[in-house]
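re: ur question from the group chat, yeah i did fold both. here u go
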Amino acid sequence: MKTALLCYQDGAFTSIRNDEALVFSEAQLVMGFGAPELVRAPESYDFLKQQFPAANIVLCSSSGEIYEKEVRDGTITISASTFVSTTMATAMVAIDDFTSAYEAGKALIQRMPIAGLRLVLVLSDGGKVNGSELVKGMNAVKPDHVLITGGLAGDADRFEKTYVGLNGYPESGKIVAIGFYGEKLVLSHGSLGGWEAFGLERTVTRSEQNIVYEIDHKNALDLYINYLGEYAAELPGSALLFPLSLTLEGSDETVVRTILSIDNVAKTMTFAGDLPEGAKVKFMKANFDKLIDAASDAAGSCLTITQASPKLALLISCVGRKIILGNRIEEEVEAVAEMFGAQTVVTGFYSYGEISPLQPFSNCEFHNQTMTITGLNEME
């Protein structure tokens, strides 16, 4: 496996890391994560197609691009890879063609050949797609041995339109899957948040998918505002500082749910993932050092699985973490890069949601506010 890393801006590559002299015309997979206005521009795809004529080209809009130890904005970070024995298959669906994200997720996996499938990397629209339902649909039909990771496209901090494309101009509402096949493919993954829970465990008593009306039979928004105290005046922006932890049914594992919006008239809160009735939740708060430590621990989870650093590390972190960490944001990327070492090519983006298992190679879950890592390599 060979991987090169490039940065695209103003119609050209502005920086290139190509330690193994990868021949661009032989690249099999190109993944680009970047500013929405650049990703959707036809000339961006046309340029990449000219540079990498034989590759599957996947583009995804972001809320910030990861290039080695740097977090950039207004660029496209591009990884180009060739494999010795690993093969790939791709699929794409449009959310508007289905009655729900659950059905879209099922269809996406069912369009992949199953024999020899090891990993499905999913990049989804981040505005129109319910990430929780997408994950449930994919888990419903995937074989037990298949790892699914990925994330939802971003749109800086605007939360308007996101774009994903496969071998063509990116569009809103698309969901792309890349399937990886081969016995010599070496995979690893990790996903951690680093948030601190506080207060009592509570129960969601009235909700509809990702809209919450009542917690402990009390109005959810009133309860939340009471907990925020002085930060309540800064809603909805301050909600990023205080997500909820959700304990998964039948498990002690938790995932994080971020508030997308509040409705002061209906007195509801809309989250970036589902909070079903009966779910156990706790309020959470940010601790900068723990957020950064969690990124390092996510890399440690990868190393525990393979006992070796990956050739390519795909980092998908949450826009909420980027906003909260501010000028310290590169510290979480640096923590991952330092765990893996100089031999690992680090790429990725800031997203509207992350997809990864909680336990090694188990069913995937939908996360908010985590650092999620997928590691790829090939045995010689």
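okk and heres the other one u asked abt
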Amino acid sequence: MPKLRFARVLLHVLTGVCTCAFIFPWISAPKRDALVRRWSHQLLSLCKVRVKFIDQSGGQLADHALIIANHVSWLDIFVINSWQACHFVAKADIRSWPIAGWLSAQAGTIFLARGKQREVRRIYEGLVHQLEQNKRIAFFPEGTTGAQGGLLPFHANLFEAAIEAKVPVLPFAVRYVDAQGQLHSAADFIGEMTFAESMKLILAAGEITAELIQLPSIPTEGAHRRELALASRQVVADALGVNIETL
């Protein structure tokens, strides 16, 4: 059965490629966002991942905020996109991934090459402009994926974009649980694990529930980027039940 499910996932990916190539150039941004949301829902369904949205923010909207979340798996992007289509900031090497890199670019991913200060500055200025234009920008401040049950330090640099654009930070906590509500290790995408290995584990795992927890926004007026990074990490840790003082 996992082989059949893998074939269905592959077919869905190819459908996404065709949509990006032949439909995206001719439709408006809102229609593209709607297709991204629907495609993400369908991908997660094929992977037997059910998204449970939990609002702990008091109903705040994401249109005027920089969205951040902890990073567990490649699934995270599609879990968030199934809620609201976002433009993600990702490492530049993802652009070279077969199919997935091209799909990410077509979905509006912003690729960041670390160590190239001129390019970093150009992309940073673009982030500020897009935030000022009320586009939904999201990134994972841990910078890489980490095993569930922990939380890596948050890099502070990109939080500066929210300060300059005068928008709040809207944090999310993401976790994957089984039918008993326990953390589901099949979702972890860490170490030297390949995408194929991760997909094999997920397809063999049965149903996984992805909990997407929206937390209260954090104002940026008068704040420093390091303060925002620390505050964001703390609220995400609290939502996940992680004691970061012991990490």
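fwiw on the second one: The beta strands are 49-55, 66-69, 87-91, 110-112, 137-139, 169-177, 208-214. DSSP finds eight helices and seven strands in the chain. idk if thats what u expected
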